[in-house]
Amino acid sequence: MRLLMWVMITATVVGCNGPPKETGTEPPLTTDLDGDGFAADADCNDNDASINPGAEEVCDDVDNNCDEVIDDTTTNGTAWYLDADTDGYGDPAASEIACDIPTGYVANNSDCNDADAAISPDAQEVCDEANIDEDCNGLSNDGDPNATGGGYYYPDRDGDTYGDMDSASISACNQPNGYATEPVDCDDSNAAVHPGALEICDGVDNDCDTLGDEDDPDVTGQTTWYVDGDGDSHGTVLATLDACSQPAGYAGNSDDCNDGNGAIYPGATEICDGQDNDCNSLSDEADPNLVGGSIWYLDSDSDGYGDAASASPLSCNQPASYVADNTDCNDSNRAINPGAQEVCDSNDADEDCDGVADDNDLSVSGLLTWYIDNDGDSYGDNSTTLQVCDQPTGYVENDLDPLEDASFSTLSATADLSEVVDVASNATTLYAVGFNHLGEPVVVGVDTSLGTITELYAGEPLVQPSGLALSPDGQTLYISDVAATTVSDVMSGGVFEMPVSGAVLTELGVSDAIDLPGDVAISSDGSTLYVSALNSAGTPGIYTLSANGGTPALFYSGSRLAEPLALTVSPDGASVYVVDGSSAAKRGALLEISGGQASVLAQGFHIAFPGGVTVSEDGAWLFYTTYGPEGVYALSADGSMTELLDTQGLLVIPTGISVAGGNLWISDASDENGDIFSISY
Question: What are phi and psi of 8, to 5 degrees?
């Protein structure tokens, strides 16, 4: 190195003397032996390519960059750190790059405080108020697990500043949150329990002195208890006791108004017993809380049933004119109540208070019988009835229409007759009198079931038969003839009897009293014949005659009789009914003769000689034929109801009529073909 420095000095001196003089010698060599880009005259070691003016100086005891200074690098040396406190640890903030360690420096930089030899990585971490990191590990005091010199602390989970006496302690420089310095808390889950706490009545040792409630002389907040002599949980102020827990025989209140009766206390049920059961200073019905009393209902009509709309307040005793029942639906009428009998009435009153009245009430009594009135004539038929209170549509209150469902028909077997003047019948047999096609007067028997006729008698003495009757025993026929050839010349007509077997006619009642007999009828007992006639003087009258013959007797003659024709007798024999016609226009009248008096039942109708009238077997109805209009009328026996029966327009000259066994038989005197018609009812 010294040689190099000398060469450099020499060169400098020479340079200062100006440019070299021409000596005639060769210029300096420019060879580069080591190929490092530097000529030998500039390269301080042209044999080593790593040594040249452009090389980087490294620590190897060589002048690598030919600056004549060895190991003067500031980048490739070692970093050395100042150790000002000489504790063997360097300051990372004070360093120097050098190949050799400078004085006062060390190789490490781990000292966190190079001004204090007590602070270094080898130092002991201790608890201090300055919170210093003595061992340079980045942690201090409680943050450093290596710290020493701290205190002991105990868990304080309930935050009452007293540590749990049953938990282990921890060591720390500073008191941690949730920890206390003393392990004296006997219940670290309850902040109200700790030494010094107020001992109260709660079954807990609040102040941690091992005594609780009444056992602790420091206890406060005891309850005042009141003697409960009757055991109803309600006490009185007569005796008290302060205690945490309820003593036997004491209650927590003093509101019992009778401590000698366990059924009397506030909240008890007020009942009808004359006492204040619930201690509200009211008793029985004076107490709005009364239970067990009764509500009574006004019974204005004194029928034992009260009006629900007239209730009394709850009461222990029954007030006057009140009853316990509230089911009366009309408290102004004692005949109306739930115990009454429902009856039919025009007002549809609900007598038994069941919400329905008359026909809507199954218990109703006094039902009326209503009869079907199919033809709308206001007369009913007893074939169909309804028992209800109110009149149903199509029904009437009477059963006076015997022919409501009558059936009209023609008896075809009579085709052999040209005229049928009269008929007589019983329940099994029908007889007729009239004329055959030869013009002869005949008496015939008619078999209604077979449709055949049997001629019983023909010819004289019959000339103009006018009436026919059948004995009640069905054995004898009686025929009147207005122009008969009689045994004597006393009469121009006569009355005859004939057995139903025919063959023989016997004249009865030979007398000039019966000159022109119109019709003959027989009493229900078969003993007496009734004959309508004109006597020889032309006086009209009704005569009686024994069925066995004899002398006729006048039954009635007088006003209203003009031309008596057809007649019949009531079943009880009290009345005789006569069809009477005027001699001119045959304007007829239906008369009732009873008790020696004649009264008009119907009038103003035309008659086809000899006319016809009969009475029903029960005597309730009269049936008579008319010629204008052609038909059959039904008339109630008292004359109050009249009905024209439906004959379908087939009658031409209706004459006689007979009734038996639910059948009406009507004769027709048509000139062409006499007919017998039937109405079944």
Answer: -65, -45
Q: What are phi and psi of 359, to 5 degrees?
A: -65, -20
Residue 650 · residue 410 · CB < 8 Å: yes
CATH number at residue 658: 2.120.10.30
Q: Which two tokens stand for residue 19?
A: 């440019």
423-437 pLDDT tens trace? 999 888 899 999 988
CA distance 208 to 205: 6
In a domain, 47, yes or no: no
Tell me the pTM. Answer: 0.49
Token digits of residue 389? 């209170």
CA 49 to the chain's CA centroid: 121
In sequence order, the 6+-apart residues with CB closer than 8 A to the CB of 306 are 296, 297, 298, 299, 322, 323, 324, 325, 326, 327, 328, 331
Domain of 448 in residue numbering reads as: 407-680
CA distance 518 to 562: 12
The Cα 158–Cα 187 span in angstroms is 9
In a domain, 345, yes or no: no
For the chain, which residues score pLDDT lower than 50?
A: 1-24, 487-491, 583-585
Residue 387: closest CA among 406, 368, 361: 368
How many structural domains is the chain composed of? 1
